[in-house]
Design brief:
Helices cover about 30% and strands about 40% of the residues. It is an alpha+beta fold. It folds into 2 domains: about 35 residues; about 100 residues, Immunoglobulins (Immunoglobulin-like), CATH 2.60.40. The strands form 2 sheets. The chain has a 4-stranded antiparallel β-sheet, with no helix packed on it. The chain has a 4-stranded mixed β-sheet with strand order 2-8-7-4, with no helix packed on it. The relative contact order is 0.19.
Length: about 150
């Protein structure tokens, strides 16, 4: 009987040890997966408001961000919601603590209000990040029309 009780105690201890090792291994795996994906964007602004701009004016703007993670950020692709918006991605990985830039060109020949999304696909924690541009393209004053008005007077 004593021998049988010793076996039960040893078996109980072995099961508890196995469970503790399994939990410890699981925690290590979770920690590694979080640290492997520790790249993170911090944008100065996630929306650029062009405000009211003249037709055919400069439609280029730049989003500036910082890699606040511990690993390089690699931007795989940037996609706009419309062909009137052309984003340009950084050519090199953005190292931890460094700033990166994403240039966006909007076709200002299209008059009226606009609100466009730019989707960034990267290796950051949030693999898909959306930034936005908005504004209003006004007719403005055409220089040729102004010259003709002045020459007629």
């Amino acid at each position: 009987m004593v021998h049988f009780l010793k076996q039960i105690i040893i078996l109980n201890f072995t099961v508890k040890l196995f469970i503790m090792k399994a939990i410890g291994s699981l925690l290590v795996i979770v920690f590694i997966s979080f640290s492997m994906n520790s790249q993170e964007f911090k944008f100065e602004s996630e929306t650029i408001n062009y405000g009211k701009i003249a037709k055919s004016s400069n439609g280029e703007r730049t989003f500036v961000f910082t890699n606040v993670g511990e690993q390089p950020i690699i931007i795989n692709k940037i996609q706009s919601s419309c062909g009137c918006t052309v984003p340009e991605k950084p050519k090199k990985p953005i190292m931890p603590g460094e700033k990166g830039k994403i240039k966006v060109s909007y076709d200002t020949k299209r008059m009226g209000g606009f609100s466009k999304q730019i989707t960034i696909f990267s290796n950051a924690k949030t693999a898909r990040k959306v930034i936005k541009i908005k504004g209003f393209v006004d007719k403005g004053i055409d220089l040729e029309k102004e010259k003709s008005m002045l020459s007629n007077n």
